[in-house]
Amino acid sequence: GQNIDQPTEMTATEGAIVQINCTYQTSGFNGLFWYQQHAGEAPTFLSYNVLDGLEEKGRFSSFLSRSKGYSYLLLKELQMKDSASYLCAFSGGYNKLIFGAGTRLAVHP
Amino acid sequence: SAVISQKPSRDICQRGTSLTIQCQVDSQVTMMFWYRQQPGQSLTLIATANQGSEATYESGFVIDKFPISRPNLTFSTLTVSNMSPEDSSIYLCSVVRQSTDTQYFGPGTRLTVL
Description:
The complex is a heterodimer of chains A (109) and B (114). Chain A has no helices and eleven strands. Chain A has 109 residues and is mostly beta strands. In chain A, the strands form two sheets. In chain A, strands 2, 4, 5, 9, 10 and 11 form a six-stranded mixed beta sheet that branches. Chain A has a five-stranded antiparallel beta sheet with strand order 1-3-8-7-6, with no helix packed on it. Chain B is globular, with a radius of gyration of 13 Å.
């Protein structure tokens, strides 16, 4: 079957680094997405990994290991505006996305 | 990215009625999808909107309840039929542009059924 897991909640301090993990199981895999969603808003695209390794985009980086069914999103130099839900999703084929439950990140001063 | 608009942005409806949600994108896209996000939960795929043919529905979703149209490459509608309070959700359309695999979401339609 298909399954995707990520922690429900995390807290971190402004200026720090936080890593949000995501594990998945699927028979068909076409890539791993991370989205940011602020309360009451639509998800915003952050990153897409299709090959193993680390992709860096400014303060945000995303890592994928296909053999381990594992990804993480790394947020550096945290800011208060980074408080949001972070959604992990994999593409199982035909661009259809299967989402995890999301990780609510709270950034404190 | 793609500029995606949805109408209405929100609505409050009575039980037993139907609501049609529109999704418009600013340029041609290969794929369009409809998702539901129930309160406090993550996104669940309802269906793939296919241009000029019947939508492809995911398990648990049926055409009679969620009829979908996609008359061209930039426009799609989702109807939530015979609504009940359990249909209260945010409904989002998403698109995939040609030559990419990246999926972008519209702003969503917040539906409340009384």
